[in-house]
Each structure stands twice: as C-alpha cells, then as structure tokens.
Amino acid sequence: MVKKNTCIFISGYGSNLKSLIKRSREYNFPAKIKLVVSNNSKANGIFYAKKNSIPYLLINTKKRNFDFEILKSLKKYKISLICLAGYMKIIPKRLIRNFKKPIINIHPSLLPKFKGLNTYERVLKNKEIQTGCTVHHVSEKLDDGKIILKKRFFIQKSDNIKILKNKTQNLERIGFSEAIINLFRYN
C-alpha cells in the first residue's frame, strides 16, 4: 500500500494527533504523518511530534502571509492530505484554494448543528438528545464542507460539558481514522 503523506494541524493537547500517529504505523492504514503544523508553541501535541520524530512547523497566524509558509512546507514534504485535529483557527481561503488536495476537519458536533465554537455548551443548552462528532471536507465556509462521516451517542441527563467533551473525544479518535480510510478506499 502506498501511504498518503499527511499533515496534521493542531492547537492544543493533540489527542487526535497521538491516535493518528499510532494508526499510521499500521500496515493497512492509508496515511503517513510527515508534518505537524501548530499555531501554539505550547501545544502538548508538539511533544508527540518530537517524540515520534515528525517534523513540525510553528506558525504565527497574526503574521501576514503565514499561509505561504505553510504551503511551502506542504510542498517540501509532498503532503497529499491535511487533517485539522483540534486546530482552533480558520484556514485561510488562499491556502484552501492553492492546496488543491483534501483538507478534512473533525468537529465536535453533529453538523450542520452547532458550527463553530462552544459546541458542548450549546448542545446542553439546546437540550439535544444525542450528539457526537463529524468529519468533513474543509470548504471556504466554516464547518460547511461535504460530510465524510458522523459518530453519535445519546446524551444522559447527568452529562455535563466535561463528560460530553470526553465522550466526544473518544469517538473522534475512532472517527478520524475511519474517515481517512473511507477517503482513500476508492482512490
């Protein structure tokens, strides 16, 4: 199997990154993580990149034309797929237009419901019966690209924000890998 060179964008803890690194070592998993990009120099996910000898790029999203720096690194590492795994910034339209390969995101709600931030709070406030996560293609509109897959669970009356977040993140670690497999199954 020829694996696709993959770049993971992160902003924080890196639990999805850690899971994807583990899966990428499996013979039949279609992605090989070649680069990690983060807008946060203190992101714990950088530790996983270092520990696994994966090159990483720290970016300053306030710097003008930072997207060119990203595009240069994507080209250098021959990246065929970008995965947004807890990346808390909007991808510049110019990067989406110039990359011309799949960019996928994992979102902690059942899209199209609860796009954007503070999803757990909004799910509880809206008294939803179920929630979960969605993996979707990134488009120029926020959390609006074609859906690859959804994972869901029923909300218990005792669930709070912390519990919802934990349950959702457990599903994300499964769902992200499944979405990558689905993405390349017929390619």
Overview of this protein structure:
- The structure is a single chain.
- The chain has helices spanning 15-24, 45-51, 66-76, 93-99, 119-125, 161-185; strands at 4-10, 31-38, 56-58, 81-84, 103-107, 130-137, 147-154.
- The chain has six helices and seven strands.
- Helix 1 (15-24) runs parallel beside helix 6 (161-185) and helix 3 (66-76) packs parallel to helix 4.
- 36% of the residues lie in helices and 23% in strands.
- With 187 residues, the protein is α/β, with parallel strands linked by helices.
- It has two domains: 1-101, Rossmann fold; 107-187, 3-Layer(aba) Sandwich (Rossmann fold), CATH 3.40.50.170.
- The protein has a seven-stranded mixed beta sheet with strand order 3-2-1-4-5-6-7, with helices on both faces.
- The radius of gyration is 16 Å and the shape is globular.
